[in-house]
Amino acid sequence: MSTSIDRWSNGIRARWTALERDWQSVVVGATIVGLVSVLGLPIPW
Amino acid sequence: MGVRRLLPGIVALCLGAVLARWLARVVGVNHLLVAIALGVVVSNAVGLPDDCDPGVATHKLWLGSGIVLMGASISTATVLEVGGPVFLVVLAVTGLTLVVVELLARNVFDLTERLGTLLAAGASICGVSAVVAVAGAVRATEDQVAYAAATVLLFDAITIVVYPIVGDLLDLSGAVFGTWAGVSMFSTGPVVAVGFAYSDAAGQWATMTKLSRNALIGVVVLGYASYYARRGGDGTASVRTLWAEFPKFVLGFLALAALSSLGVFSSAQQTSIEHAYNWLFLLAFVGLGTEIRLADIKSTGLLPAVVVLLALLVGSLLSLTVLSVLF
Question: With B301 labelled, which of B70, B182, B261, B294 sits at a CA distance of 20 to 30 A?
Fold first, then answer.
């Protein structure tokens, strides 16, 4: 179980590291939009 | 890169962001300017532990992410209404700044050809990012890159302070101030910071204008690479360079602007997204502040600084005049 989780997280990390920084920014932005619009996450200021 | 290596610096950025937000409320100064000042003070007076360096260096990632999210707040109707003339001003001022720096560097101040090129790219397009991108294409030396980058950072620090003062003195509207900052200041971070420090509308105009200017980087790198390759240097030119140097987060910004204008987001969701980009900008600007090293600025050569100052004055005055007539 833990091995498959490790493999999965290593795969994610490898893909993230391979991304250009600009694309990483797009992924971070898309993740936040997903959290806000799909899960309704409120972000305070 | 391991998460553990990044964690100390990211925690430092988060603490700085929360502190900047609190200080801004107490002092009554814009939170983004407080964030930059905090970064400058901490890195120059106390210094950050080396462990923090990798995490603090992520500040450009947070700036890009913040700009992507800002797309959700953009009024595409307004952009389409005045976008054409503003883009012409962007093209004119970018071209003018590039030519003025090249002419002054080569013919008046007798700087080396490649240093003049790096200064021209940094002043006309997007600051240090443009210096680094063009340096790779024209095979500039490390000394030339360091000199040009230090000169650009010097003017980033000066314009962060001077532009809002001039804007207030001249009582410029948000659209004029934002477009003026976006078209004539150098690096993206300081442009976004002074824009939002002036007003929300100014921040949005500053960011949009600066993004369209940044999108020209591929063309400029390609042009310089071709020029130096033809002159017998070992720079290489390729159409692929256009895509390689294109700031891809602009695509995320445009995608969100399109979704927003289609009415995909509710007003509560839009408010949360705005809060998210405000926090991301705070993280980014604390990190940006730590990059402004006063010792490096002092060691900047006088001649490169004079060349860039003259180009900044020409571009800034011309664009302000045109924009005041346009809006």
Answer: B182
Dist. CA B135–CA B144, nearest whole Å: 9
Question: How many beta carbons lie within 10 A of that of residue A9, not counting itself?
Answer: 11
- What are the tens digits of pLDDT across the range B143-181? 788 778 878 888 888 899 899 999 999 999 999 999 999
What's the average model confidence in pLDDT over B198-224? 87
**B97 three-class SS:** helix
| Distance between A5 CA and the closest CA of chain B, angstroms | 16
CB-nearest to A29 from B69, B269, B274 is B69
What letter represents residue B266's amino acid? S
Residue with tokens 């927003």: B260
Contacts of B143 (CB under 8 A, 6+ apart): none
Q: What is the pLDDT of residues B21-59, one digit of tens each?
A: 999 889 887 788 888 889 989 988 888 888 999 999 999
Decide if A30 touches B, using CB distance below 8 A. yes
What does each C-alpha distance from A23 to A19, B61, B268 come to in angstroms?
A: 6, 9, 27
From CA B327, how far away is CA B316, in angstroms rounded? 16
